[in-house]
Amino acid sequence: MFLGTRIYERRRQQGLTQTELAHQICTQNTISKLEKHNVAPTVNILIKLCQRLNLTLNDVFDDFDANTSSEEHQLLTNLETQLLLQEATPKTLATFKLLRPADMQPTDHLQYALVKSMLELQQGQLDDAQFTLDQVLQLTKNDATNVDTVLAYILKGESYAEKHVERIDYYMQLATHAVKEKVSLPAATLVEQLFICQALAAYHYQQQAQKVALHYCQQGLKLAQVHHSTMFMGPLSRVYVDLLRDDPAKRATFENYQKIVTLLAKVDI
């Protein structure tokens, strides 16, 4: 159950009026409703209010029922998407800090650890990220059919510097063997599948394994086309163009994707 009284108590402690608390977040009337009648606001408004009042989600709910768990899961999914797309901002970290893993549903622990590892990678905390990714793999039991296992392998590979090439190769090959021919892991989201395609395409391209790189490029581009998505279209198209550049039989395809690369560069996607 949402506890609007917690908002009221913290607001009064900080000496804020309802109007001051609502500034650039919502209306004064919204604050009044949630404080007096325990009417939960939208997730976006709730996050901003908690940040302003230095509260966590656990502070404003008396228990984590199915609805709260669903909201937390959606928050984690949104954070994961931002991080996979490299669109994270300081607000991403602030939102993550609102979550308390000890009070989460067991089903959310895995995604929480994965998001935590990506934030650590973004902040250059490589040793911490590797430790957290090991926790992810413990939770998945290295199940190669679990998309989080594959993501953890790729992120582990990306966490090693160039001087640890053998470790990079080890984890990227594990990811490759896990997805095999087709990137269609159970329960994988579109952004997760496209991230895996572009990561494996880039890795095998660097290894000069052109046939394998081409395969993952084609998988990713076809997936994006089917879902009318531009996610990862830039990196996938750039590798694809380089792979087709010297193939006379693919000249028309090369020219089409060269145009896409040029267009995406102009709009900075």
UniProtKB/TrEMBL annotation:
Transmembrane segments: none annotated. SUPFAM superfamilies: lambda repressor-like DNA-binding domains. The keyword DNA-binding applies. Keywords: DNA-binding. Gene3D superfamilies: Tetratricopeptide repeat domain. SMART domains: HTH_XRE (SM00530). The keyword Ribonucleoprotein does not apply. Residues 7-60 form the HTH cro/C1-type domain. PANTHER family: TRACRIPTIONAL REGULATORY PROTEIN-RELATED-RELATED (PTHR46558), TRANSCRIPTIONAL REGULATOR (PTHR46558:SF3). This is Helix-turn-helix domain-containing protein. It comes from Lactiplantibacillus dongliensis. The lineage of its organism: Bacteria, Bacillati, Bacillota, Bacilli, Lactobacillales.
